[in-house]
Design brief:
The complex is a heterotrimer of chains A (474), B (414) and C (118). Chain B has 414 residues and is an alpha/beta fold. Chain B has helices at residues 13-24, 53-56, 62-75, 123-126, 139-149, 164-175, 194-201, 261-265, 303-323, 398-402, and strands at 2-9, 30-33, 49-51, 60-61, 80-81, 85-89, 94-99, 103-114, 118-120, 136-138, 151-152, 156-160, 179-185, 208-210, 212-218, 225-230, 243-246, 249-252, 256-258, 290-292, 331-337, 339-343, 346-347, 354-360, 364-373, 376-386, 392-396, 408-413. Chain B folds into three domains: 1-120 and 256-326, FAD/NAD(P)-binding domain, CATH 3.50.50; 122-254, FAD/NAD(P)-binding domain, CATH 3.50.50; 328-414, Immunoglobulin-like (Sandwich). Helices cover 23% and strands 35% of the residues of chain B.
Chain lengths: 474, 414, 118
């Protein structure tokens, strides 16, 4: 019997798990996929929004501003790349200028620090490549690597005692006298409290306990990621003025030095459909070109699609189930969900306390997780010391991102361990560079097979039946 | 810091040929740095034949061709480091590298030969819409799995791109029991050698769809199929022309890119068309004492030409170390007409004949190759047929080069 | 009399050959730049052959051993030869040219190693 079962190993569930691991509680994360951060948490803009976008007096507004304030510390503790690069919302005509002015007012009301409207000259000075007549500038905004943040939060939670069960897709929930039994295809978990952090599936989970009062619509967002060589055409995150369907196409550096273009916003039916489309990718290119001068769209290294969990109300759905005791919904966490995630976790713990969960602090909670990319940031002398102890750090496997065998082995054995080549990619960046694994995937697959003690044919790209190889030739 | 006269980055066909030439031209102190666990580079996985006809006068497989040079490197006692990756070079020729035994170390070189080869263009560069399942491989990655590791990446295959590696893999996978359903090429002509179309596709009745591309990848976990569409002259998919192929593997052979990250890191100017450094006839880059050859300079069709070019660079590097900088101020070689690029892009010395390599941008028939310097025509020849997939060359005679001055234009007129 | 167009595969030049045939007899070959091209055209129209390159397993190794037919074999023998390689296991040391399998698929041609393994 666990104290808390969190359904969903995304950034919301992960941040909450970490927050709960500060207390004397037994906590389990139930993730239906074979790795964590497999939904929107691995495919979003990676923006820590300033907090000017949400309507005042909403959860979105409050938790975004708070999350943005918390993020630098959280990211530093978890060893996650974060950069406070500021954001611009660009007006290109009088109409969008009005929208920008409105956002400024909201920002002031929401308590976003140091927010200003730049005129054309000031904009040109700050961001010469941006095409606009004015822009809202939020210097507190930043960028963070969303999947690294999720992996690190869950890893740190696990280091502090939280359990992770992968491939656990909750398909039935039974109420018992003192809690719930959660059923997956071949497994069950008993728990006193349940937190629903199931992303696009949060409404499906809610319906399992007959909470049929909200709907989540997957809203697809397609992105194109450019080579590091594309460089910093812009330093800030650049948004177009917002529309009903979201914040428009953005152009942003990533914490790893790439340039990210996207997302589109298309409501779709299928919650698993993360296919990119010809039209979508064209839209991304068009939108980016309209806003920023000289975006080298030819330097694409990959494109992808993520699904926002769009609720049927304006605000996040963060509330105890109206009809089920000890059951908390964290649903409809669309943008600014990543930015808000540390604050959502803080608030959720407060709510769980109000719901009766006993919160006694641990004395041995360790908030620190070593950077995953620690090795490459060392001096040559420090690197040599490590290579002397473990020669695998002297062997580079991924040439493009310069990832060593030592780092790959560590990613397999460190919480939450990577079990497939995509997992290695998200944890180490191995295979994420310009050749997209062309050279290193065979080697990474061999390391996975060796470290996991499985035959090479059983190594997958991303769990399930995503096998890399089908047969031996002889 | 350790001092070495000549550091050669890369122990593939280019690096080995450069080393051998440098030694044969009197340079003793040479070090080859190779990132893989053996010399030979990409030839190690190119087990097919067709190598060496020019260089050795007989038809060899990739490993056999590599072994010829390995034997020479060994016989000449040229030192090399394996499993060692160069992480940076500087314009003043400090080479920083790393391996398991020595850790991170730096070497001061008097000259450097860049011979890092090239890599394949990936799916991302093409922005193919659809899912991102397992089963999408670059042809080279598949080649490594099949030929070196003995594993088949899949049994039902579609290949996008008719570059030589794709064609070779179509045959190879077929021989190993896979069913290759189609090879699609977005251009109206193949990027591969004609002989490979014949012996890799026609021999096995594998259809080649020109002016076609993959417009969607299906399958969530593993590829289940691809949609192939015809493209118009602007290479945009034509609605209504979609064909569906059920398959579990998509191989990409959509172009090679010289691997010039180190070159860029040292601020050595590159040619935007070739993706390699700008070089003179000795294959010296614009940074004195740093030379480039092989596929890191421009993508070659034949390894024989790689060796030839590398020997030039190796000799020039040896001369540079032993005799110092030589040559006049550079004259530009300008590509004109149907010529897409030339290598070299500059000529300094005119005391010897200079061979200029070039490619055309699209297939030409009944073409005239003309080399001019101002009003002076240095060379004129007829070519019945030229294609982007086949490298061409012209040899400019020293006496003619000396007799004129200024930039040299290589053009193809149809 | 009829003509047939071929792409020569003897070397990477890939000459476009035109063969004039009288029944199965080659009357004339044009388009070739060397005598081997002419021979290829004649062989291709009468008894086409190919050099087979493949791999065999190498005992106690993670890597395969590349091999080839010592000379071209009839085109129709390619698949039978592949089948014959299925169960061949080579043992180090191997030198380039070492015979790995004699008389593959009754072609009279041996399979030889194309890599040195110490």
């Amino acid at each position: 019997m666990y104290d808390v079962a969190i359904i969903g190993g995304g950034v919301v569930g992960g941040m909450l798990a970490r927050e709960l691991s500060r207390y004397q509680l037994s906590v389990v994360i139930l993730e239906k996929e074979y790795d964590v951060a497999m939904g929107a948490s691995k495919a979003n803009s990676g923006i820590v929004h300033g907090g000017f976008d949400a309507k005042p007096d909403t959860l979105k507004a409050r938790l975004n501003v708070r999350g943005c304030e918390m993020m630098p510390t959280v990211a530093a503790e978890l060893g996650v790349p974060y950069r406070n690069n500021g954001s611009l919302v660009v007006a290109q005509d009088e109409e969008s200028l009005a929208a920008v002015r409105e956002l400024y007012q909201r920002g002031v009301e929401n308590g976003v620090p140091a927010i200003t409207v730049l005129d054309e000259a000031a904009l040109r000075e700050l961001a010469p490549a941006v095409k606009g007549i004015a822009a809202l500038y939020a210097p507190s905004a930043g960028i963070v690597c969303p999947y690294t943040l999720t992996v690190a939060a869950i890893g740190n939670a696990m280091d502090n005692g939280v359990e992770l069960r992968r491939g656990f897709g909750v398909d039935r929930i039974e109420k018992t006298t003192d809690g719930y039994v959660l059923y997956a295809a071949e497994d069950t978990v008993e728990t006193r409290y349940v937190v629903n952090a199931a992303g696009v599936h949060a409404d499906d989970i809610a319906r399992l306990v007959r909470d049929d009062y909200f709907r989540i619509t997957p809203r697809a967002g397609e992105y194109i990621l450019l080579d590091k060589e594309a460089g910093c055409v812009v330093e800030q995150t650049v948004f177009g003025a917002p529309s009903k369907m979201g914040k428009g196409i953005l152009v942003s550096p990533t914490t790893h030095g790439n340039l990210l273009l996207g997302p589109t916003a298309t409501d779709i039916e299928n919650k698993e459909d993360t296919a990119t489309t010809y039209e979508g990718l064209q839209k991304v290119i068009g939108g980016a070109n309209r806003m920023v001068e000289g975006v080298p769209v030819g330097k694409a290294i990959t494109s992808f699609c993520g699904l926002r969990s769009t609720p049927d109300r304006y605000d996040f759905i963060i509330e105890p189930s109206p009809s089920n005791p000890h059951f908390l919904h964290l649903a409809g966490i669309e943008s600014p969900g990543l930015s808000s995630s540390p604050a959502i976790a803080e608030y959720a713990v407060e709510l769980l306390g109000q719901m009766g969960l006993a919160l006694t602090k641990k004395t041995d909670f360790n908030p620190i997780r070593e950077r995953v990319d620690a090795f490459r940031h060392l001096s040559d002398e420090e690197k040599n010391e490590i290579i002397r102890k473990d020669s695998r750090y002297g062997r580079i496997v991924c040439r493009c991102e310069q990832v060593t065998e030592g780092e790959i082995v560590a990613a397999i054995h460190r919480n939450p361990g990577a079990t497939d080549t995509d997992g290695i990619k998200r944890r180490t960046r191995g295979g994420m560079g310009r050749c997209q694994g062309g050279f290193c995937q065979p080697v990474v697959a061999e390391i996975l097979a060796r470290e996991l003690g499985i035959p090479l044919q059983q190594v997958t790209k991303s769990g399930g039946s995503s096998y890399l190889l089908t047969d031996k030739t002889k | 810091m350790k001092q070495v006269d000549l550091v050669i980055i890369g122990g593939g066909p280019a690096g080995m040929a450069a080393a051998v030439a440098a030694r044969e031209n009197g340079l003793e102190d040479i070090l080859i740095i190779e990132r893989d666990n053996a010399l030979g580079g990409i030839l190690r996985q190119c087990i097919h034949n067709g190598f060496g006809l020019h260089r050795f006068g007989e038809e060899l497989t990739g490993p056999e061709y590599a072994a010829r040079y390995e034997t020479e490197v060994e016989a000449l006692g040229i030192p090399y480091l394996l499993n060692t990756i160069v992480t940076a070079i500087t314009p003043d020729r400090v080479v920083t590298a790393m391996n398991s035994e020595d850790g991170v170390f730096s070497v001061q070189a008097k000259a450097i030969v860049l011979a890092m080869g090239c890599r394949e263009r990936s799916r991302g560069a093409l922005n193919i819409p659809g899912n991102r399942p397992a089963g999408v491989y670059s042809a080279g990655a598949a080649q490594k799995f099949v030929n070196m590791k003995g594993y088949l990446p899949g049994r039902k295959v579609v290949i996008l791109g008719s570059g030589d590696i794709g064609l070779i893999m179509a045959r190879r996978m077929t021989l190993e029991g896979a069913e290759v359903q189609a090879v699609c090429e977005v251009m109206p002509y193949s990027g591969g050698l004609q002989r490979n179309i014949q012996q890799c596709l026609k021999d096995f009745d594998i259809p080649l769809y020109l002016s076609h591309t993959v417009t969607e990848i299906h399958g969530k976990e593993r590829v289940t199929g691809v949609t192939v569409s015809k493209v118009d002259e602007q290479r945009r998919p034509v609605a209504g022309s979609e064909m569906y192929f059920a398959c579990n593997t998509l191989l990409l052979s959509v172009g090679l890119i010289p691997e010039n990250e180190l070159t860029k890191g040292a601020d050595i100017p590159l040619d935007p068309i070739t993706g390699g450094a700008l070089v003179d006839e000795s294959r010296q880059t614009a940074t004195e004492g740093i030379f480039a050859c092989g596929n890191v300079l421009h993508v070659h069709d034949l390894v024989d030409y790689v060796s030839e070019e590398a020997a030039l660079a190796g000799k020039a590097a040896a001369d540079y170390v032993l005799a110092g900088a030589a040559g006049d101020s550079p004259r530009r070689v300008i590509a004109a007409g149907a010529v897409r690029y030339t290598v070299p892009q500059t000529i300094r010395r005119t005391d010897k004949d200079v061979t200029v390599y070039f490619r055309v941008g699209s297939p030409c028939t009944a073409a005239t190759v003309r080399v001019t310097c101002g009003d002076v025509e240095l060379l004129k020849k007829k070519k019945p047929k030229m294609a982007p997939g086949e490298m061409e060359s012209v040899t400019l005679k020293a006496d003619k080069l000396i007799a004129c001055s200024g930039d040299i234009t290589v053009s193809v007129e149809v | 009399m009829k003509t047939k167009n071929l792409t020569c595969i003897v070397c990477p030049l890939g000459c476009e050959l035109t063969v004039t045939l009288d029944g199965k007899t080659v009357v004339e070959v044009s388009g070739n730049t060397c005598p081997r091209g002419k021979q290829y055209a004649i062989d291709e129209c009468t008894a086409p052959t190919r050099t087979l390159t493949s791999t065999v397993r190498l005992a106690d190794s993670e890597e395969m051993l590349p091999v080839k037919t010592a000379s071209p074999i009839p085109k129709e023998a390619l698949m039978p030869a592949m089948a014959a390689l299925q169960d061949v296991v080579a043992h180090a040391p191997v030198a380039i040219g070492d015979v790995v399998l004699k008389n593959v698929a009754a072609t009279g041609v041996d399979i030889i190693a194309t890599k040195n393994v110490k």
